[in-house]
Amino acid sequence: MAVSTGLLMFAVGANHAFGQRADADAWRHPHKAAAGKGTAIEALSTDYVRGKPITVVDLAALDGRAPVPPGMKRFPKPGETWVSPALGRMMADRPADRLAQRFPSGKAAGTLGREALIHPDELVAVIGRAPSDPAVTAQRNESEAVDATAAPERIDAYATGAVSSRAQVYQVLMIIASVLMVVPLLVFGGAAARLTVARRDQRLAALRLVGATPGQVVAITTAEAVLTAAAGALAGVALYAAAVPALTRITIAGGTWYAGDLWPGLAALAVPAAVPVLVGISAVAGLRRVVVSPLGVARRETPPHLKAVRLAAFVLLLVAFAAVSGSLGGMGKAGLVVLLAFLALAFLGINLVGPWAVALIGRIAVATARGPARLLAGRRLLDDPRSAWRTVAGVALTGFVAGFLALMNPSASALGDHPTDRLELLVPHDRSAAVSRQVQERVNGLPATVTVDRGRTDPPLPVPGRADGEEADDTVAVRVRGGADQVERARTALAGVVPGKVATTPADPDAVQAELLADLRTGALTVLAVSFLIAITSAGITGASAVLDRRQAYAMLRLAGTPLQVLDRARRQETVIPLAVMGGGSILTGLFFAAPFAAGFGVSGALTLLAFVVLGFAGILGAGALSRPLLRSVTADPAPRPD
Question: Sign (positive/negative) of CA torsion 590, 591, 595, 597?
């Protein structure tokens, strides 16, 4: 329960942290003020230094009511530059002609506070301008990375609900990752709640037979489960709190984290409060047979066979997803909600059909048995398919995660190989000659060559104020020799040559996209690793629990002369056989659900699946081996006991 609660806190805390980042980014994308109500002008551009983006916010006050930006004590005066701590350190460490001279006065007038920053490592500059400054009057086109450029707008407040496209992508990915991780966690918690459930049912059935009421049985079970889970939940909160300092060092979206962002506010109380409730419900849900038929439990009667309607419900889920998957991409936020719902239903569907499939596997094993170990394994699967499914459920559900993520594992090689030594400026055709002359003057003395490419936009981008059919922008390009330091000197020299535009290399936006792809791979492997460890741990716990639950049956088999090796082989087969079938089925289901959103099956995806199959089976076998000494212990003295 402590591990489950700690990981649930991590999932909730990560979602909260991405939400906090989105809020910190919103002020750079404010809503346009109503006509005549603007009190300030804001524009956005993105510069780069050694492949790292620098968010540049230009602000001009129209009157004394201009709103103070987040993280600043006052509105910046014309010519002032306020910088983030990371950018300030970088400006101090580098020669001025490689960074600082890009900003007015070449030095910082102030340092931006926490409220203005997405993460501690972010590079941000807020520049004060006069209302007539071309930097806040010239139009801009969004020809760089997503959300990297915004034309000047009159504003009267900074947006609190606006979320940039990049922030939305990370929020969506985190939500999907949470669903993929939380469901195996709940299975793990359910397995812990059902430890030694068979022996518990025997004791409770005996209490019912000597006169205990159903209410008393439920109260006993609830108290035992809830009190234990509550202690584990509190330990889990402490575990997560101790892990937060280490979690802040994880780099996602170009930076580390503020510790306060990772602490999920009220959810820090809701999660440990919900865990004991869920465990209590899980424990009480298994009491129906004890309450209704205690004599059947005491006599160890085989429960009724599971219905094939479970399989029908699972097939219906697959058909429904196939019918709507093609339209999910065009549904916006509603499409995300539908996708998350289907992912959750897929987990529930696998968990629903699992016991039925295990029972079917048991019938086949019994019918085809050629030795005592296979016969014992098949009879056990047929006698209690739910218990056998719980042993392999964690790994089977993780198979769905592995299959889903195998197709969601893009490679940065798809971005291409763009030059890093060519700085480009898009300018209108009628100004390209004049701009090229200015550029030549700026880079005079540097190892650079200036050229003009006619009408190069790939594809042509719409520019405010230009009618259809007008000639496309020209590209004034500067080829720089001498390495990265010379490129940064040329980039600094070109700052402000075209108001509202930043000289960038074709590789600069790719660096941001490559960062996103790397984060996708990191997140996918993290979710898979967490799910995998949970699954293996769950298998070990349920395997040990099964030995304790069946100690009397094992003792009787030993008295009948069954060798210990046969019992151990039967126990291993009743785990491996269902795992091979259900694990493969879960992987195929994950591939099916990911197929509409994936471009293809790459080498990295194939390696991920192969690693999961190998480690999954090895982990299950290892978890089973850990309970072998327990099996030897409970059969060391096979004499019947009063219980």
Answer: positive
The sign of the dihedral angle between the CA atoms of 498, 499, 503, 509 is negative
Q: Determine the Cα–Cα distance for residues 458 and 253; give it in Å rounded to an integer.
A: 27
pTM: 0.77
Nearest to 42 by CA among 126, 156, 153: 153
The crossing angle, in degrees rounded to 10, of helices 507-549 and 165-193 is 10
3-state secondary structure of 34: coil
Residue 602: partners with Cβ closer than 8 Å, 6 or more residues away: 409, 410, 411
Cβ atoms of 125 and 82 closer than 8 Å: yes
CB atoms within 10 A of CB 444: 10
Say how far apart CA 397 and CA 531 lie, in whole Å. 9
Cα–Cα distance, 501 to 141 (Å, whole number): 9
Edge to edge, the sheet with strand 448-453 lists: 422-427, 474-480, 448-453
Phi/psi at 641 (5° precision): -115, 160
Encoding tokens for residue 466? 């230009």
Residue reference for tokens 């000597």: 210
Residues 6+ apart with CB under 8 A from 117: 24, 71, 84, 124
Burial of 430 (0-12, 13-18, 19+ CB in 10 A): exposed
- Cα distances from 438 to residues 68, 104, 497, 515, in angstroms, run 35, 19, 7, 34
> Backbone phi, then psi, for 332, in 5-degree steps?
65, -135
User: Could you give the 3-state DSSP secondary structure of residue 170?
Assistant: helix
| Alpha carbons within 13 A on the beta-carbon side of 593 | 29
- Before 459, cis peptide (omega within 30)? yes
- Model pLDDT, residue 235: 93
Task: Profile the chain (643 residues) by mean pLDDT over runs of 10 residues.
Answer: 86 90 88 84 90 91 91 93 94 91 89 93 94 86 61 85 78 83 73 61 73 78 83 91 91 89 83 84 64 51 68 90 76 73 86 89 89 88 82 80 73 65 86 89 89 65 48 82 90 88 84 79 79 78 79 83 87 85 86 74 69 79 84 75 54
Per residue, the 3-state secondary structure of 487-527, as one string, reads: HHHHHHHCCCCCCCCCCECCHHHHHHHHHHHHHHHHHHHHH
Task: Yes or no: say if 5 and 272 are a contact pair by the CB < 8 Å rule.
Answer: yes
Token pair recorded at residue 146:
């997503």
Calpha distance 168→19 (Å, rounded): 9
Distance CA(496)–CA(202), nearest Å, equals 81
CA atoms within a 13 Å half-sphere pointing along the CA-CB vector of 308: 1
User: What does DSSP assign to residue 328?
Assistant: G
